[in-house]
Amino acid sequence: MTDIGQLPVPPIRADGLQMQEYRDRQRRYWRIQRMGWWGFGAIMLLAILGLTGSGGVFQTQTLRFADATVEVPRVSRWEGTDGVSIVFAKSEARHEVRIGQPFFDRFSIRRIQPEPDRNLLIPGAQSLAFTAEGLGPHQVRMDLRALHFGWTAFDITIGNETRRASLIVLP
Fold it and tell me: Keyword Transmembrane helix, does the record have it (predicted)?
């Protein structure tokens, strides 16, 4: 190499270019860049499938009881609205649902349709009772808003059966 002033001049390569290449560093950069693109693609696929909330095949989880079915979101958004749907298959005059306190610590209920006749505080849970007339199925819909983000798990009890629901609230 010859110096022009204080700058070293790289030699001329066989292909006529006058530069020094550090290919190992560039190859590492390209490899990291490709992994980033695969990561972004995986995030997009998860969003399309509903694993980031609001739509998709995996948006809700279904809890099956002997006399009812409960649909709870798997993923919710912080300060976004979601819903819980309870369908009672049996035709009874009164339906009762007990929901664990961790649910109420994470969510505020904006609206319950129809309104419960009785809301009773019991240790570690709340009990909601609904009166019904006519043949079933009867449906209850709760509109929710997440108060905090994070992972939560709570119990839902209908009749003598208890199921555990877990969901994540994304920021």
Answer: yes
